[in-house]
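Reply to dn_fold:

You asked what the input looked like. This is it:
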Amino acid sequence: MSLKQLTVFVENKQGSLVAITDNLARHNVNMRALSIADTQEFGILRLIVDDHAAAVKTLSDEGFLINTTAVVGVKIGDEPGKLSKALEVLDNAGINVEYLYAFMARTEKHAYVVLRVADNAAAETALETAGFHLITDADVDKL
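and this is what came back:
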């Protein structure tokens, strides 16, 4: 039930990000969520896209170093304390969150959050048991 996240290693220089985003756009791949962390020499771009296979192919063909990672996607009410509640559920289940970032979504009153944890199945079970709705690749395709 996890989502497929692309991790792209990007040289930290002018034009690197536009090369990736233009490449995806030319191949009709729509980015649904993204996060970038950088160091002096390179960045790590994390993406959730609507066509994972096309993104992998086009970026690989252009020589980008990429990796696919399974992550958990969760729908959270857009009101104070809802993210904290989801994180508390995971903490109470003994699950460490390595990183997270939010989704761009076209729904009202909800936010989508991507979570990287060591055990996706345990996180999904804990969140579902607590009443949270998990999102799937099919849900991402509908956004």
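The chain is about 35% helix and 40% strand.
Hope that clears it up.
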